[in-house]
Write a structure and sequence with these properties.
- With 575 residues, the chain is an alpha/beta fold.
- The protein has four domains: 81 residues, no CATH class; 217 residues, FAD/NAD(P)-binding domain; 107 residues, FAD/NAD(P)-binding domain (3-Layer(bba) Sandwich), CATH 3.50.50; 95 residues, Orthogonal Bundle (Arc Repressor Mutant, subunit A).
- Helix content is 31%, strand content 20%.
- Strand 25 and strand 26 form a beta hairpin.
- The longest helix has 18 residues.
Length: 575
């Protein structure tokens, strides 16, 4: 978030655990991380260091949302606080000036596009050309999403799309506005400053929510300053961070972040536990320092720097060891942002090619089982960035064909071009989209598999003896060890086994895994104000990998309204 009129970020601060007071290393300056800030007792993480005294900090820590229900001291002292507050009240509340009310804004459109990144912008442009009235909503202060910050590395001019959409849609292009989901029969959103509440009326909704960069999980991950790729990139461009960051992740986005940091004058080291770059092109790492196939085993913090110890598997029970030092750990590992789709009731399935848990949809973007919901861009699965504008056109023409604005043959041609683009850029994604459309993701050879790897779990199965040091939920201090203990208790097992022997298979098949909603209630996972945005998918995939079960057996949390923190006064003013 910004701390002055220029829109520049302030130097970020590390938050602290609401339970223990220990530092929590994850640093995210993006609007969707507001819930994480609130869970840790802060209104913003990127406004510079606080100047409050030690005593004031002690008292303010009692007011943290996650501490209040657990603090016996607060409960015992509360009557005294109430009497003191009444004694200080020298003015009747009725004599106080009326606070400003949030303005209710109704937005009418044929198609509502949620997300202002490349996918949302391209889809809005195509739909507008076809004569439909479009409204676009995005939580960022400016349209363009994360890709606008790495335009020089990916060959896509997102800024051109953003300027054209602003000109075409005018005040129907809403930036700095959060789509909160559905309250009874109303689609609701609010401005980040709480001054406006939006009610959206539409015939079709297009979900272009993109992806979220999530924390890495490894022993001692809470100790080091860990940034999202977009956050660190913004801070580097504003001159607020310097030095030698370690960038984790080697897909298109990760490589683009690393190369952009080099241009900003930093000397990043890029790491991944994949043996080859996830782009599929080893040449993409040319000019970069890189360590591949590395699993992090230990963390040491020394002043303003940290040391990561890692192991590289070289065979059965054989590892080579090494160390890497840096000033910051930058996570570029992404998962599709599926919270809105989950609230809408979309069928969500696992596909490693598409980045994890994605909605079932057809080639035209129509979400299976939902008549007026479409998905586009990386929310539909991690596809090459160069193919997103082509997919946007296919989705737009599919919507237009439904309402008779174009012939079905034209929509088929747009879909055919998307198929052709994936044939050359990512054949595996082509096969994955075919499975989703035909329902083959859970049949025969294509049956939903066990999870072969979790990109954000950078210690994997090798360091389970340190499960209590691997923080999964940064809001509520839930570790991998907590998840394993609760899973064991729900299933009645003496322990969670990674390897299932042949004579144990019948009993293993009879086991019923606990749903994530029950795990949430038992551990506190996802009960912070971030509502599981940072941990839900990670926890699901890690448990599925450890227990050799399908992610669908664990499921996801219920996605309740609002999907993002909303001031109660803003919602109350809508009555």
């Amino acid at each position: 978030m910004a701390n002055d009129d220029s829109g520049r970020l302030g130097k970020p601060v590390m938050l602290s655990s609401p339970r223990t007071g220990e530092p929590r290393g994850f640093i995210c300056c993006e609007w969707w991380c507001m819930g994480y800030w609130l869970s840790n007792g802060s209104l913003n993480q990127c406004v510079g260091s606080s100047s409050q005294g030690r005593g004031l900090g002690l008292f303010s820590s009692f007011a943290r949302p996650s501490v209040l229900p657990r603090s016996r001291l607060v409960k015992l002292a509360w009557p005294i606080v109430v009497r003191f507050a009444k004694g200080m009240r020298h003015v009747d509340p009725s004599q106080l000036p009326e606070p400003p009310r949030a303005k209710l804004v109704k937005v009418n459109s044929d198609v509502l596009v949620v997300g202002g990144g490349l996918a949302g912008l391209a889809t809005a442009m195509e739909l507008s050309k076809l004569g439909l009235k479009i409204a676009l909503v995005d939580g960022n202060g400016e349209l363009g999403g994360r890709l606008i910050h790495v335009e020089g590395e990916l060959g896509v001019k997102v800024s051109d799309y953003a300027s054209k959409v602003k000109d075409e849609l005018g005040d129907q292009a809403l930036s700095g506005v959060v789509f909160d989901g559905f309250l009874e029969d109303a689609a609701v959103g609010h401005s980040l400053d709480g001054s406006r509440l939006f009610q959206f009326n539409y015939r079709v909704i297009v979900v272009a929510t993109g992806v979220r960069e999530v924390p890495l999980v490894f022993p001692g991950n809470y100790k080091v300053p860990m940034y999202t790729g977009l956050t660190y990139l913004k801070l580097a461009k504003d001159g607020l961070v310097k030095g030698e960051p370690i960038v984790y992740g080697t897909d298109e986005w990760g490589v683009a972040v690393a190369k952009s940091l080099v241009k900003a004058g930093l000397t990043p080291l890029i790491m991944d536990h994949a043996i080859q770059p996830r782009t599929g092109r080893p040449s993409d790492l040319s000019g970069l320092r890189a360590i591949m196939g590395a699993y992090i085993s230990e963390t040491e913090v020394e002043g303003g720097r940290f040391r990561l110890r890692y192991q590289v598997p070289e065979g059965p029970k054989r590892f080579s060891e090494g160390e890497a030092t840096g000033d910051a750990l930058v996570t570029t590992v992404r998962v599709p942002a599926i919270e809105l789709l989950a609230q809408l009731g979309a069928e969500l399935v696992y596909d490693i090619v598409l980045g994890g848990i994605v909605p079932r949809h057809n080639w035209g973007g129509g979400v299976t089982g939902l008549s007026n919901v479409y998905v586009v861009g990386e929310a539909s699965g991690l596809i090459p960035i160069s193919t997103i504008p082509i997919q946007a056109r296919a989705v737009a023409y599919s919507i237009a064909a439904t309402y008779g604005l174009v012939k079905p043959e034209e929509a088929d041609q747009a879909v055919a071009k998307l198929r052709e683009a994936l044939v050359t850029s990512n054949p595996a994604a082509l096969d994955a989209f075919n499975r989703l459309e035909r329902g083959l993701h859970d049949v025969g050879y294509f049956q939903e598999p066990n999870v072969p790897e979790v990109p954000q779990w950078v210690s994997d199965l090798y360091f389970l003896d340190k499960a209590d040091e691997q923080l999964v939920c940064f809001c509520e201090d839930v570790t991998l060890g907590d998840l394993l203990r609760v899973t064991r208790e729900f299933t009645g097992l003496r322990g969670v086994k990674v390897t299932v022997l042949h004579d144990e298979v019948p009993k293993y098949r009879e086991l019923k895994m606990p749903r994530m909603e029950y795990i949430k209630r038992a551990t506190g996972l996802g009960t912070g104000a971030c509502q599981g945005k940072l941990c839900m998918v990670t926890a699901n995939l890690m448990l599925a990998r450890l227990t050799q079960r399908k992610p669908g057996e664990f499921g996801l949390f219920r996605q309740r309204f609002p999907l993002n923190p909303m001031p109660m006064g803003t919602l109350g003013d809508a009555e």
